[in-house]
Amino acid sequence: MSKRLLLIGGGHSHVEVIRRFAHEPEPDAAITLVSPDRLTAYSGMLPGHVAGHYSREECHIDLEHLCRAAGITRVESTVTGLDLECGFARCGNEHTLPFDILSIDTGSVAATAAVAGADRHGIAVRPVAHFLQQWDRILASAARARSALRIAVVGAGAAGVELVLAMQHRMLGLDGNARFTLVGDGPGILPSHPRRLQCRFMDILNARGIELRLDGTVQGVDADSLLLRGGARIATDEVFWVTGAAAPPWPAASGLGVDARGFIAVNAKLQSMSHPRVFAAGDVASMVDAPRPKSGVYAVRQGPPLARNLRRALRGESLLDYRPQRRALALISAGDRYAMASYGALAWGGGWVWQWKDRIDRGFMQRYRVEGGWSGQQGRRR
Ligand SMILES: Cc1cc2nc3c(=O)[nH]c(=O)nc-3n(C[C@H](O)[C@H](O)[C@H](O)COP(=O)(O)OP(=O)(O)OC[C@H]3O[C@@H](n4cnc5c(N)ncnc54)[C@H](O)[C@@H]3O)c2cc1C
After folding, report:
1. Nearest CA to ligand 1 atom 50
2. Does a cis peptide bond (omega within 30 degrees of 0) precede residue 47?
3. In this predicted model, what pLDDT tens digit does every residue of 168-183 receive, in sequence order?
4. How far is the CA of 166 from the centre of ligand 1 (A)?
5. Region 256-278: what's the mean pLDDT?
6. What is the pTM for the complete model shown?
7. Where are the domains of the chain?
8. 254 touches ligand 1 (CB under 6 Å)
């Protein structure tokens, strides 16, 4: 009897798993992907889409096309829990999906839980489909607004800085009436990047008139303001919440072994430390012996070793270890066609960096476009 492999989530690692199974099908496996949406977003191009440089289609991978090419059944649903003893996943629409081998790549969730009102009044970047719906709504209302819409972006890491600059760029292009504030809880912006890059982005934010509220730990969010520790308030019409990655609750609640933050604990084989027939990759997983930041680049790099080990597990072969790279190249865009790169302590910037990033991103997406046939090219990502 064929073995059942269930893939939960169409994240950056699983799209590569599916691509590899399309190139080399596994005859004795019945593979299912469960994912809430037909399209999955490529985060590297998301700020560029918000800024208006890319269409929605250009920054999304069509999971239906990918799965069809690989002979994989796609179920449109959200997993809410697992029965690890009996081997099935529970879905939001009452479905249950059985598995012999399970792989989870569902990403992280917004870190809103600790702040009162953030869930209700803040717009999180995930789920991306909801974020983009909200962005469309805000663009439309800014075009009609008599007084400037007050938009706050909470989180001064790479995603927050890229998004606030992208949003402002798009608003300017559409003659939208909006004012932006970037709120961070530390003394500076982009804390994990070199000083040169931080200073350059600080200059850009100031030159574009984006208000900076640093050292501003948000304690509460309501319909028209942010409450900061110490009592200060920032008046807002819209709040975007980009404060980093939290773990979804259902893996731990299902009994999977997790790290101290609730991310699925995996070994060097990307295999659950508690349940050997479960694998996990991307933001939702934590490699206990080689922890790395939550970033798309690591999720992408885990795709090939995950595909290899899932295939070996299906065949009953021994699994192979994977060692992630120590550091990764980061490419951060400034809304317009300017970007900076950082690698360790080094940083560069310029229009040419944006063009470079654009080529890498388009090359990456090309690998997952099925209509034109498989390109076979090994596009790189940061
Ligand atoms: C604005 C922004 C810009 C970024 N830019 C970069 C960048 O330039 N470079 C970089 O390296 N990183 C970047 N990141 C970080 C990057 O987005 C994440 O690290 C990356 O997306 C993680 O990939 P993943 O495979 O873990 O999951 P994801 O890409 O988040 O994909 C998870 C998938 O699983 C699905 N899913 C979720 N829950 C369930 C469920 N319960 N059941 C079934 N399916 C589910 C989702 O719908 C989604 O399709 C950025 C993040 C943001 C917010």
Report:
1. 43
2. no
3. 999 988 887 899 999 9
4. 18
5. 98
6. 0.94
7. 3-108+247-326, 118-241
8. no
